[in-house]
């Protein structure tokens, strides 16, 4: 699958460091979230930050698992991947790992957006009433996971015909957007 060994080494280093490091982060942050564990381990880190870091650790851990699957596919198929490519792309494992990587990316992006919004309110309104409480943060994070799951399931559920139609519509929309931007830039 990979043309040279340098890419294989980088893949395995990133994969293993992602899985191990995010597992450690998850466990270390989880102890601050469980009341029994909180009594055993004292921490000054806020609950919101722990919630954000827990969610990001899970998404990055999932990405590490995806990289592990790619690395194992490289070990199994090697330079003969092209012989099995069509079967892999149509198979259930490709769909599962596609779901995992899509979910991981979307949830990670939305959690980072939530962190930015929370920090924005904390900086712009330092003494104001606009605050994310721990319960609200958990509810928003759960909503993000649900939205990410729906977005990740959509390509799997839709038929190939609908997928091609959506790709065509997105292509047309992007072309029109670029034409509009070109016209708008040339106007000024």
From TrEMBL:
SUPFAM superfamilies: Family A G protein-coupled receptor-like
InterPro entries recorded: GPCR_Rhodpsn, GPCR_Rhodpsn_7TM
Key words, A-Z: G-protein coupled receptor, Leucine-rich repeat, Membrane, Receptor, Repeat, Transducer, Transmembrane, Transmembrane helix
Ranges annotated as spanning the membrane: 6-30, 51-76, 96-115, 136-158, 164-185
Compartments it resides in: Membrane
Domain of life, per lineage: Eukaryota
GO terms for MF: G protein-coupled peptide receptor activity
A GO biological process held by the record: adenylate cyclase-activating G protein-coupled receptor signaling pathway
PROSITE patterns: G_PROTEIN_RECEP_F1_1, G_PROTEIN_RECEP_F1_2
Residues covered by the G-protein coupled receptors family 1 profile domain: 21-188
Listed GO CC annotations: plasma membrane
Family, similarity comment: Belongs to the G-protein coupled receptor 1 family.
Name of the protein: Relaxin receptor 2
Organism: Holothuria leucospilota
Native organism taxonomy: Eukaryota, Metazoa, Echinodermata, Eleutherozoa, Echinozoa
